[in-house]
Design a protein that fits this description.
Length: 231
Amino acid sequence: MYTIDDLKTNRDAQIMVGCIAFFVLAFPAYFALAATGADGSLGGGVGDYQVNGEISYIPLADGSVYVEDATTWSEVFNTDAVDGAEDLNIVGIMVSMSYGEDEESNGVGCGDDGPDTITGTATHLEYSGSEDGQNSGGSGAHDAMAIWYNDTMVGSVVYGLTTNEIDAELDKTGAGVGDHTVDISVFVDTGNTGPPVVGCQRTDNGEQVDYTVQLMVLEYTIAPYLDTSDL
């Protein structure tokens, strides 16, 4: 417990009281602002903000298709299949693919099957993303996605922007409504890159690809960032 005389002469006492006064005044204001911004609609001015968020996945379609070598299967899926899609903050589309190995070999000296390349592409309006995968070892799986929000902001401190500017990067409600296109291509490798091995015959006409298509929905919060590292 410090006395008035301590506060006049004791530097440690002065620092302690000053820190207590700062936290008493600053923290209630900080938490009040944070609570106001919990729904992502703070409407604050230029400042530094902590942005947190989480992606959930809404099923749009699934199926299985045989894709022949050097061809592309394409299908369009519409968000009309999802109730209330127009009210969701849809920020991306993801297609997940899994596949085996259709290659057959007969005879001696064939060796291992060649890994085929399966390419998935997800597209919505002008946004598109592609990823390749291979069925090395007889099976494989991979995802491809297209996004139309600033994913670098999520889980980060954003400096020198207003909350409205942050919202413009993250709130895409209505932007994900409509057609979403999925393309799946297959390019086979029969395993023999040189002269045919005597007695070995191979066939590989394509691959059976199972797929699921999901909408990516973002929920996020914005809170004022208070840097306490120098306190």
